Amino acid sequence: MPRNCDNWLKTYLLYTKASESPTNFHFWTGVSTIAGALRRRVWIDQKYFQWTPNFYIILVGPAGIAAKSTSIRSGVKFLERLKTIRFGPQSMTWQALALALQEAIETIKYIDPYTGMEVKHPMSCLTITVGELGTFLKPDDSALVDALVSLWDGQLETWSHQTKSSGNIEIKNPWLNIIACTTPSWLQAHFPEHMIGGGLTSRIIFVFGDKKRHFVPYPAEIINDQEFKELEDKLFFDLAEISTMAGKIVLTPEALQWGSEWYEKHWSTRPVHMASERYGGYISRKQTHIHKLAIVLAASRHSKLIIEKQDLWEAEQLITSIEPDMQKAFASIGVADEAKRMQQLVSYTKAYGFIKLDDLYRLAMQQMSRKDFESTIAAAIQGRVLAAIVKNGVRGLIIPTSPSS
Questions:
Q1: In contact, 129 and 180? CB cutoff 8 Å
Q2: Which residues contact 318 (CB under 8 A, 6 or more apart)?
Q3: How far is residue 114 from each of residues 119, 212, 299, measured CA to CA in Å?
Q4: Which has the higher per-residue pLDDT, 236 or 372?
Q5: How buried is residue 396: exposed, middle or buried, by Cβ count under 10 Å (0-12/13-18/19+)?
Q6: pLDDT tens digits for range 186-209
Q7: Which domains does the chain carry?
Q8: Residue 8: which pLDDT band, with cuts at 50, 70 and 90?
Q9: pLDDT at 342 over 50
Q10: What percent of the chain clears pLDDT 90, i.e. is strictly above it?
């Protein structure tokens, strides 16, 4: 059936243009929305494994600044209208997750284009939207974390777990799509160091936003009602069409060539900004992130079960573009006490623009001793994270115009 939108994601960004939230929040919400509609109905088959279009996306920003939850609601309302999408609970243990997946079992039917035969494909798919990550994820719940790590792969398998209340649970082809919100301070307080590297964090798309893209006190006053309703209807119609796609996705010869060349370069030359071993797990999964996103980008444009070179190239560019966000997230996890103190002082200085040392200490004195304050200030200045200047005869601190990375 013909689409109303040449590109669902671009139309969605137009639909959300009056929102104050950062553009990247809306883009990745759109990605999660398409993924939720596709579910495990489409995949790229690699014989030993499959790539499926599910994501763990976390929008990260200061509380009340970047409207993270509002961004998610703008997309999830389209999935809710579809009626065929199963949503998981926002607060859970792994047992509750297993039960929710078991209840989501369904069988899809499609025609194999190579054999012309009807194929039945069981799957258990959930999309979970979480306004506050802390209500859903308890990092010290190792059983839940292990389940999330396992489910991200979205493999063709039977996932078995034993629960006290329901006995042995077997789930056919489980598939989990999550989008959540949190703050840098929550990550710093609750994500332990051991979750970095090969663990859960390397499977997460972190999207940072710490400021409004523009100020819109009354969105309804600048939104054209007719245009807004027309865009909403077009987006819903096309998302319903996307939700009917089913079958194996193939890569064109040009896409395969590009992907092969990228893969060799990826493992031959590690980028400087990803040199730390902290990013080892992410580096090993970047190819998977790219192909998951390429499926969504292709579905955003058409219903053909084809990945083209342009889809892979664009997916790689988009994934690479958020690596600085990954670095910011990892910088909040497992940091030393001095680094935490430095982050606190930088936050105060950034808010004030210029702040006298005595004023800064009065703000921070409940979090650190005078000795720790002075040593942290010295380290921050030496590392060019803060700069000491004299303004109107008063010595204080500012954020350097070109702080060190």
A1: yes
A2: 293
A3: 11, 50, 21
A4: 236
A5: buried
A6: 887 777 666 665 588 889 999 998
A7: 8-331 (3.40.50), 337-398 (1.10.10)
A8: very high
A9: yes
A10: 46
